[in-house]
Design brief:
Layout lengths: L4 H16 L12 H13 L4 H5 L4 H26 L9 H20 L11 H22 L4 E6 L5 E4 L3 E6 L2 H8 L9 E3 L2 H9 L5
Parallel strand pairs: 1-3
Antiparallel strand pairs: 1-2, 3-4
Helix pairs in contact: 1-4, 1-5, 2-4, 6-7
Length: about 210
């Protein structure tokens, strides 16, 4: 079922957490897998940690809550908590859980997969369909946040279907759907995409920060 895709990403990420251990590199800045697992736990289970995930000025509070979770649970306990899913509350409602978690867990799954030498996943049409729908909804917001003026951004998947956002010189980013998501979420060192368009406009898009 489509609404279970976030659970599949969660389960496979936890399997990979267990495989690579607590000190494996990730694409989430300087975090190792231990810190990434702690982030996912406090995101769902610690109200005091929430604001710092969204507000940079409060990042220190979130970091402190993550450290506390690490001391309390250890890596195996953190992975078990992530695997068990969100606690009772709105996030446990399947539709809410799916909307809030699918892209989050897809991106963080890739954050661990790619440094571990795993390439793009090309056998997940159901996942691609959900991620493509997400890009259609969220790309306008992401482009506004990036403040790339005078550029029309085209996101093109391999079958030629396109999401177009903005007005101006056209810059096309082409690649598999999951790779487009990774590119817009700042995983540019691993995202397998191709740019096409006027040189100056392409340079401005490449320098922009799209993540939300």
């Amino acid at each position: 079922m489509t609404s279970d895709l976030d659970l599949r990403e969660r389960r496979e990420l936890c399997d990979l957490f267990e495989e690579v251990g607590p000190d494996a590199p990730t694409l989430s800045g300087e975090w190792r897998t231990l810190q990434l697992a702690a982030h996912l736990v406090v995101r769902e289970r610690d109200l005091l940690a929430g604001p710092g995930i969204l507000v940079p000025a409060l990042e220190g509070v979130t970091a402190s809550r993550m450290d506390k979770a690490i001391r309390r649970h250890g890596y195996p306990g953190l992975v078990d908590l992530v695997r068990s899913g969100p606690p009772f509350g709105p996030m446990a409602i399947p539709a809410v859980r799916h909307a809030a978690n699918l892209v989050e867990f897809f991106v963080h799954h890739e954050d661990v997969r790619r440094p571990a030498g795993r390439g793009p996943r090309t056998d997940r049409p159901d996942l691609d369909a959900e991620l493509w729908s997400f890009l259609g909804r969220m790309a306008p917001l992401m482009v506004r946040k990036a403040r790339v003026r005078g550029v029309a951004l085209e996101l093109a998947r391999p079958d030629g279907e396109v999401h177009r956002v903005g007005r101006g010189e056209t810059v096309r980013i082409a690649g598999p759907v999951g790779e487009l998501v990774l590119e817009l979420y700042g995983r540019r060192t691993v995202a397998e995409v191709a740019y096409d368009g006027p040189e100056d406009a392409v340079a401005r898009v490449r320098e922009a920060s799209f993540g939300i």
